[in-house]
Amino acid sequence: MSKRAAPAPVPERTPTDWKGAAMQKRIRRRYAAERRFKLFGMLAVILSAAFLAFLIATMVANGARGFTRSEVALDLDFPKMGLAVDRTHLSTPGADLALSGAGLQDKVEIAAESGGDHSLAANSAWITVRDAIKADPSILGGKRTIWVPASTALEMGARGEGTAAAQADASRLRSAGKLRTGFNWGFFTASNSNDPVAVGIWGALKGSLLTMLVTFLIAFPVGVLAAIYLEEYAPKNRWTDLIEVSINNLAAVPSIIFGLLGLAVFLGTWQIGGHSFGPLLPRSAAVVGGLTLALMIMPVIVIASRNAIKGVPPSIRDAALGIGASRIQVVFHHVLPLAMPGILTGTIIGMARALGETAPLLLIGMRAFIVTAPQGFTDPATVLPVQIFLWSDEVSRGFVEKTSAAIIVLLVFLLAMNGLAIYLRNKFETRW
Question: Which residues, 6 or more positions from 71, have their beta carbon under 8 angstroms from its beta carbon?
Fold first, then answer.
């Protein structure tokens, strides 16, 4: 009978010497790694904040003047101007046409001549005079001093820029009390124009609001319902896996691709059986832009909604089923309210992305010169990012400040939407 080998002796473990040189070296190395990690994280935050501060400071420095406007006082002798207009027509809808036909624009431009190579008043100054005449037709019988928008050359001269002649005129007029600078409220009430003094963002801003409304009304319910079905009801097979992968891929597709899709589907023309069909919708309309942006942000809403629904504990579902609730009651009475903060956060972030998009809207024609604000979803419209893009391509120096001012307005809206998303998450989020 063979003898069993004796087990090897187990070495006796000594207690850890926390004060030993080797252990102290390891501890110092560990603490040093933690300090480096904290330092890198702090540097990343500081760098991000510095870039943001630089962007905001640059936009404010360039765009602050875009919110102001200089005005010059024009001394107008209306009897000497010889406006052949019947005063009885000034109270009728045809007043604008009557004053324009009487040559009011040319006469105001003559009165605004400085004697040099520039005018004292903007090209739109005659509109201010026209409105003053319509408000008080009696001024046609005498002399009147009317404050009108100053020309771009004179406005730059008032800031110490531009030509020497413009600076001299600005200094002379300011000394005489005929040049003033104030807040440009018209920047928020006017629409696009060829004159940088008369431009405003109201038309583009209203177009953005209408486009975002269409985007939300389509993308939010469709995206949330799709997420509910995929998470709660869809069978787990290769087809649903394919759909999930496709949704994730669509969320990373460049936005210009969705512009091509909107152009082909909503504004395209098809030849079927020798007959032409399409386009389905009017070009450069808020409804087309909203549909295109809805297709773009819908995958983002689906992904955010699925993650929010998945984050609701199974015990909530089990408890609701245990007390007799149906599947649809479990989803809409218990799961969806608890997941709504995450859903709204993802939706708002997606909407903020859509608000700043330009490429897909350029492809569907929302870059037209829109003088009046859209009155409905099918009227020609543009959006604020496209308006900024068009102004940045203008040659006139006055559009530079207007572009920066419009960027500031867009940044305010984007920051407000992201701030709202953070507020909703912090206020309604339930921590398990």
Answer: 147, 148, 149, 150, 179, 180, 181, 182
With respect to residue 277, please indicate whether it lies within any of the assigned structural domains.
yes
414 burial via Cβ count (<10 Å: 0-12, 13-18, 19+):
middle
Asked whether residue 171 falls in the same domain as residue 276, the answer is no
CA pair distance 258, 279, nearest whole angstrom = 17
Q: Residues 177, 323: one domain?
A: no
CB 406 within 8 A of CB 188: no
Query: How far is 414 from 418, CA to CA, in rounded Å?
Result: 6
Mean pLDDT by 10 residues, the chain (432 residues): 62 66 85 94 95 86 83 86 77 80 84 75 86 85 87 84 84 88 87 84 91 93 92 87 89 89 84 74 88 93 92 88 88 89 88 89 83 87 89 81 88 85 77 60
**Among the listed residues 143, 103, 147, 88, the one whose alpha carbon sits nearest the alpha carbon of residue 121:** 147
d(CA 296, CA 4): 75
Residues 77 and 139 in one domain: yes
Tell me the CA distances in angstroms from 39 to 46, 96, 279, one per residue in order.
10, 67, 58
Instruction: Tell me the C-alpha to C-alpha distance, in Å, between residue 232 and each of 221, 225, 312, 327, 336.
Output: 16, 10, 12, 9, 11
Domain check: are 118 and 242 in the same one?
no
Residue appearing with tokens 């801003």? 205
Same domain, 78 and 225: no
Q: How many domains are contained in the chain?
A: 2
- The residue range of the domain holding 345 is 202-428
Kindly state whether residue 21 falls inside one of the protein's structural domains: no
Q: How far apart are the C-alpha atoms of 55 and 61, rounded to whole Å?
A: 10
> pTM for the whole thing?
0.81
Indicate if 142 and 252 belong to the same structural domain: no
**What is the radius of gyration, based on Cα positions, of the chain?**
33
Same domain, 371 and 257: yes
